[in-house]
Amino acid sequence: MRGGLARILDRLVRALGFLGQLVLLFMVVTICYDVVMRYVFVAPTTWSLEINTFLIVFLAVIPAAEVLRADAQLRIGFLADRLPLAVRRALHALMCVLGVGFCAVMVWKSGLMSLQAVQYGERMSTTLGTPMAIPYLFLPVGFGVLGLAFLGSLWQPVATEGAGADPRQQL
User: Fold this and answer.
1) 34, 45 in Cβ contact below 8 A?
2) What pLDDT shows up at residue 27?
């Protein structure tokens, strides 16, 4: 059963990572479009800044689980890589437990914030009038999936080749 859930989570995480790439591409195109419209045609868009501001929040949380899954986050490992394997495993487990706890708090608080935005009909005071619940919902979704990825990472083996590795071979 756990294997099936792990596959579903893996597909979800990969899909959200790909969605993050598409959003980044969309942002590049719309920002370039806005620059051309603003400085060449002297007719700036009314929507580009608002939408791209919300998409920055999207990029910060939605693909985060894919970054964790791919082990692509920035790290300074000169000390941790030299620790014994048992200590690295314990640190990995502690990191995963703390990550799940942090994500649970973020899901709870941002979920309440999203719910309040829906209840009170909060909107941006711009020409688009975007409902604030839309960008607020990025937070509980992103942190929820990240928390599940931390939980799944708890059962992943810790790499053994890091111990005593030559730091000149690492970036």
Assistant:
1) yes
2) 97
